[in-house]
Amino acid sequence: MKKCIVIGATSGIGRELSRLYVSKGYMTGITGRRENLLRELGSENPASYKIKSFDISKPDTNFRNLEELSSELGGLDLIIINSGTGNGNDELKFEIEKDTVLTNVLGSTEIAGWAFNYFRKQGYGQIAIVTSIAGMRGGRFAPAYSASKAYLINYAEGLRQKAKKLKLNVSVTDIRPGFVDTAMAKSDNKFWVATPKKAAEQIYSALIRKKKIAYITRRWIIIAYILKLLPKWIFDKI
Ligand SMILES: NC(=O)c1ccc[n+]([C@@H]2O[C@H](COP(=O)([O-])OP(=O)(O)OC[C@H]3O[C@@H](n4cnc5c(N)ncnc54)[C@H](OP(=O)(O)O)[C@@H]3O)[C@@H](O)[C@H]2O)c1
């Protein structure tokens, strides 16, 4: 039986991904701070879920939690680093920026590093990091959010290069959602909004194919190209 961990499984994309992996026969480790929601999800199929509630923004605690969870699962084939936070921050309140950086940057780095070394030792494995289209350019609405996702995009690329150079059978996928209908999608100008279920299905399909980068939904690749090509002077006016 294959085993996976979904970091940030209490709601939205992570919850749907967990349900999907369980339906595909995976023993699935689910995490997040809201333990009641993990228990609720776990109760849908108690034999297929292992639960571990922890806050990824607390430095140096992720290693221990992941060691415990992976040994409860009896191994690990895939980890999806999906937890994320971010808020509009017009006044640049430091607490908001700090929370975003601690969660999206520090916490995710600790988890990705742990996973890479776990899979390096094991000889194979798969890492997926949920970044965002918002990480492709800077953003004035939530500067730390865009910057933290840019960091993760680069981090994923770095890990992918490292795996290749070391000739490891470890794949790293950068999952870049556009808008998905969850609590995180706070913009007033949303479009092409996917359901969490559809997002999960497309992520699953991208991971089966071990894609390097997956736009969710697929048509967000068009926006990605526009963002890449858009001259700075036009982008700054948007
Ligand atoms: N929805 C969109 O339009 C969109 C677009 C681009 C990218 N994304 C990315 O997709 C990912 C999933 O978000 P979502 O849209 O599904 O929103 P969501 O329903 O709010 O899910 C966010 C998940 O992250 C977890 N999380 C947040 N802070 C955490 C912390 N400190 N420690 C542990 N877990 C934490 C939450 O669990 P707890 O609160 O229980 O801890 C929850 O499970 C995020 O990385 C987000 O940036 C979403």
Identify the notable features of this structure and list them briefly.
single chain, 238 residues, alpha/beta, Rossmann fold, 7-stranded parallel β-sheet, 8 helices, 7 strands, 17% strand, binds NADP nicotinamide-adenine-dinucleotide phosphate
Summed up, what is this model?
By secondary structure, the chain is of the alpha/beta class. The protein has a single domain (3-235), classed as NAD(P)-binding Rossmann-like Domain (Rossmann fold, 3-Layer(aba) Sandwich). Helices cover 47% and strands 17% of the residues.
- Looking at the overall shape, the CATH architecture is 3-Layer(aba) Sandwich
Number of H/I helices: 8
Strand runs, count: 7
Distance from first to last alpha carbon: 49 Å
Question: What number of domains?
Answer: 1
Please compute the radius of gyration using only Cα atoms: 17 Å
Q: Which strands sit side by side, in order, in the main sheet? A: 3-2-1-4-5-6-7
Helical amount:
40-55%
Mean pLDDT comes to: 97
Major sheet: size, sense and barrel closure? 7 strands, parallel
Task: Please identify the structural class as seen in this structure.
Answer: alpha/beta
CATH homologous superfamily identity:
NAD(P)-binding Rossmann-like Domain
What's the helix-strand series?
EHEHEHEHEHEHEHH
Low-confidence stretches: none
CATH class category name: Alpha Beta
Named once each, the bound ligands are:
NADP nicotinamide-adenine-dinucleotide phosphate
- Would you tell me which CATH topology applies? Rossmann fold
User: Which outline best applies?
Assistant: globular
β-strand percent reads 15-25%
